TrEMBL record:
<keyword id="KW-0812">Transmembrane</keyword>
<feature type="transmembrane region" description="Helical">
    <location>
        <begin position="374"/>
        <end position="396"/>
    </location>
</feature>
<feature type="transmembrane region" description="Helical">
    <location>
        <begin position="296"/>
        <end position="315"/>
    </location>
</feature>
<feature type="transmembrane region" description="Helical">
    <location>
        <begin position="137"/>
        <end position="155"/>
    </location>
</feature>
<feature type="transmembrane region" description="Helical">
    <location>
        <begin position="84"/>
        <end position="102"/>
    </location>
</feature>
<keyword id="KW-0614">Plasmid</keyword>
<feature type="transmembrane region" description="Helical">
    <location>
        <begin position="52"/>
        <end position="72"/>
    </location>
</feature>
<feature type="transmembrane region" description="Helical">
    <location>
        <begin position="167"/>
        <end position="187"/>
    </location>
</feature>
<feature type="transmembrane region" description="Helical">
    <location>
        <begin position="222"/>
        <end position="240"/>
    </location>
</feature>
<keyword id="KW-0472">Membrane</keyword>
<keyword id="KW-1133">Transmembrane helix</keyword>
<protein>
    <submittedName>
        <fullName>Conserved hypothetical membrane protein</fullName>
    </submittedName>
</protein>
């Protein structure tokens, strides 16, 4: 085991910021996601795995919640109010059992793609237990435990402000380090964030595509940076549309520019997919005659960009040649490239593994795919896939009809976090290699589930004309005291029997 010096230093800085914001653990888990290539240590016994710093904060959060004085009562409250936690625990148990059993049950019978233990890269090999079964399962279980721990904290006290601050700090750090990376490369300084990249991944940070520098920020490559930018953009955009926040508006604009300059095909395709509901929303507002200023601003900026591009093209026809070449190589012809063909073959082999195991799966961490849904099917099988689909539906549903029972700020934060999680699902569906949906998904599941549980309590209180925040059991006692056995009647009966 080799300890990294930069990793603990970054963790200390995040803890100081979280302590200043009066929520070091919640903010620490979220903000640490900005450092996607900074590891705490390298575990040589597990094939050189290097846990990123977010695992430290997640483990710290779970430990702190587990040491609470009334933890069993808090857990009973969570499991009693949030049905999604039962599905999550069942999925974690299935993932643990499957990661140990399936690679041994189908050993040597199936061909899969795995990380090479001797060199950096993905190789095709016969199914067998690998170190990824331990590490990937550990990350998955840690994410599930983080969901439970966050539900305990969010049900016990209203901490939605800490969630909001954490997400804005994460988006700001990610955008700031991306901007630094871009400026450093164009200034000739190269990869100025190299000291922060302590993970044992292959770092593709000083690469050009079509004459453009590929932005990596604090991530390991441009594709990862583009995926995170897409997720952060979803959060900031939804928050800006709901609150007209100048900070969210500025971050949205900066993240959009960085995303377009990232030269990431995942980011471009993901942006096109996420633009569909935005366009439909603007069209609905226009047809209903209730178009807002923000929507007018978006239409005006798009029109201005189109007119400007057309004017430049008429003045200097070859100006956009590098951009056209970039889009052509990174998006239009990506599937026919060597990398695209290789990733397509990964997905075909993963689907074949699902069929060859009769829908049981090969176990989490046993294979590598290039799409999150395909990875879920091949690793977790039909049973695990159904449970994952259930959790995904709960995230997709969001607050639903319960949003009227929470304050506007809570509803805005929950909607923004939900959009963030859905963007991460879109990004993972385009290039995700593991069945683990990622920490953002688990955080969003906790925020949405806990907010729905609190909203249900408020709905019950409003329905029965009780004080807001009153627990349902206590509410029933306050609403129908006549059903309780009167103390005086028992005493009178006892005295009457004695007299008789």
């Amino acid at each position: 085991m080799q300890i990294s010096f930069v990793g603990p230093l970054v963790c200390a800085g995040i803890l100081l910021v979280g302590y200043y914001c009066r929520a070091p653990l919640i903010i620490g888990v979220i903000v640490s996601l900005a450092f996607g290539a900074t590891a705490l240590m390298t575990l040589s016994s597990l094939g050189g795995s290097s846990p990123l710093i977010y695992t430290f904060f997640a483990a710290l959060l779970v430990t702190a919640v587990a040491l609470r004085r009334q933890i069993w009562r808090d857990l009973g409250n969570v499991f009693g109010k949030i049905r999604a936690i039962w599905v999550l625990c069942s999925l974690m148990l299935y993932a643990i059992v499957g990661a140990w059993l399936f690679p041994r049950l189908f050993a040597g019978q199936i061909s899969v793609f795995v990380q090479s233990p001797t060199r950096r890269g993905i190789v095709e090999a016969s199914l067998a237990p690998v170190s990824g079964n331990i590490t990937q399962t550990g990350y998955f279980v840690l994410g599930g435990l983080t969901t439970i721990a966050l539900c305990v904290l969010l049900l016990h006290e209203d901490r939605i402000d800490a969630i909001r601050r954490g997400f804005f700090l994460w988006c700001g750090l990610h955008a700031g380090m991306g901007l630094l990376d871009l400026i450093g490369k164009h200034a000739g300084a190269g990869d100025i964030l190299r000291p922060m990249r302590t993970a044992s991944y292959a770092m593709l940070t000083e690469v050009t595509e079509g004459g453009f520098w590929r932005i990596a920020g604090a991530q390991s490559e441009a594709s990862a940076f583009g995926g995170v930018s897409l997720v952060c953009l979803a959060f900031c955009y939804v928050y800006w549309r709901n609150t007209k926040s100048r900070l969210a508006q500025a971050l949205s604009a900066l993240l959009l520019v960085l995303l377009l300059l990232s030269t990431s095909s995942t980011a471009y395709v993901g942006l096109a997919i996420l633009s569909i509901p935005v366009a439909l929303s603007i069209l609905h507002s226009f047809l209903s005659g209730r178009i807002e200023k923000g929507e007018i601003l978006i239409i005006a900026l798009l029109a201005l960009a189109a007119v400007t591009a057309l004017s430049i093209a008429l003045y200097k026809e070859e100006f956009f040649a590098p951009f056209v070449h970039l889009i052509d190589s990174m998006v239009l012809n990506k599937a026919s490239s060597a990398s695209g063909q290789e990733r397509l073959y990964w997905n075909i082999k993963s689907l074949q593994a699902f069929v060859d195991t009769s829908g049981l799966g090969v176990g989490i961490g046993s294979s590598r795919a290039s799409s999150w849904p395909i990875a879920v099917a091949s690793q977790l099988g039909l049973v695990g896939g159904l449970m994952m689909a259930t959790l995904s539906f709960m995230v997709f549903r969001g607050m639903g009809s319960l949003k009227r029972y929470v304050d506007p700020e809570t509803n805005t934060v929950v909607s923004s976090v939900r959009a963030c999680a859905l963007a991460s699902v879109v990004s993972g569906s385009l290039a995700g290699g593991s069945s683990d949906p990622g920490m953002i998904f688990f955080i969003a599941l906790a925020v949405i589930s806990a907010s729905r549980a609190r909203a249900r309590s408020e709905r019950y209180a409003a329905k029965h004309d009780l004080p807001l925040g009153q627990p349902p059991f206590a509410a029933r006692l306050l609403k129908a005291p006549e059903k309780l056995p009167p103390v005086g009647r028992a005493t009178s009966t006892l005295e009457a029997s004695r007299g008789a």
